[in-house]
Amino acid sequence: MSRPNVPEADREIGVRHPVLLHGYVVLVDYMGNDNAIVQAARVSYGPGTKTVRDDRGLIRYLMRHRHTTPFEMVEFKFLVRLPIFVARQWVRHRTASLNEISARYSVLEEEYEVPVPEEVRHQSSRNRQGRGDPLPEEAVASFRGDLDRVSRDAYASYQRALEGGVARETARLLLPVAFYTQWYWKINLYNLFHFLSLRLDPHAQEEIRLYAAELAKIGRLVCPVAFEAFEEFQIGALGLGRREQRALRLLLEGATSNAACAAAGLPLSREDGTPMTTGEGVEFLEKLARVREAL
User: Fold this and answer.
1) Which tens digits make up the pLDDT trace of 70-105?
2) Which of 49, 50, 95, 213 is most buried, with most CB under 10 Å away?
């Protein structure tokens, strides 16, 4: 049995996809493709099967009905260079294997991230862990200047510590999370989809979204049909809870948004009457807005 390969993906092996100031994503290797997914799925049919779906239809069926095991038959290995503050979010996804450069053994390079001006913003009033409106230019320039200065000073202190005989594992404590690390990261397609569904979301931090976009670009070369199904049935899908379904029914019957949400238990205002900017009711109306945009 020959190893399945995708010529477009083979040409990407070893190619650096730049991200941020000093980061990148590299496809090191992959195993399987769209054919591996349907091959695994069709084992379930066994003898006596009356009909066999076409490959694209089968993959879309598997995605729609959340039959996840066949997607686990495809694997990717990436080399990723990224800021430590992005890495700390990335490792929350514990369904992959990784091996990271060790600052106990290696001397880290003087490479650190300074956000582009448009990404230095106010704290969001809606998302407690996100960015909001733009800051004045002088505040942006001050922050970026401070970050650059602090990072340069930290690296100078790191070098002095090493030259003074301080162990690498101790000297690294001087370096802030803007500095870069790198690792090999191996993950199967199902778990990559889960990673992307969270890290491509507009609520995710911009820096990790940029990495997710490059991972998706590479993954799409290996499994174009699976990624098409993923983008349609996961990224482009909307889930409605019971209360949201009730509110939607009331809207279709002619109720106003406020009345439908109130009747369904999805409040749009606080007890004092001020409008809410977050919550289930607001998220429901955002889902409706997405549907209108798609029509």
Assistant:
1) 999 999 999 999 999 999 999 999 899 999 999 999
2) 213
Mean pLDDT over 26-34 rounds to 97
Tell me 3's DSSP state.
P
**Token pair of 4, please?**
């399945």
* 7-105+179-235 maps to CATH 3.40.50.300: no
Is residue 83 within 8 A of residue 23, CB to CB? The reply is: yes
Give, to the nearest 10 degrees, the angle between helix 242-252 and helix 257-264: 140
Q: Is 96 within 8 Å of 187 (Cβ atoms)?
A: yes
> For residue 217, with 0-12 CB atoms within 10 Å meaning exposed, 13-18 middle and 19 or more buried, which class applies?
middle
- Domain spans in the chain, listed from the N-terminal domain onward: 7-105+179-235, 117-174, 242-294
The amino acid that residue 245 corresponds to is Q
Q: What is the DSSP string of 130-171?
A: SEEEEPPHHHHHHHHHHHHHHHHHHHHHHHHHHHTT--HHHH
Say which of 60, 81, 172, 199 is annotated catalytic: 199
Whether the pLDDT of residue 17 is over 50: the answer is yes
Q: Are 170 and 136 in contact (CB under 8 A)?
A: no
Is position 199 annotated as part of the catalytic site?
A: yes
Cα–Cα distance measured from residue 184 to residue 80, given in angstroms and rounded to the nearest whole number: 6
Helix (H) or strand (E) holding 189: helix 189-199
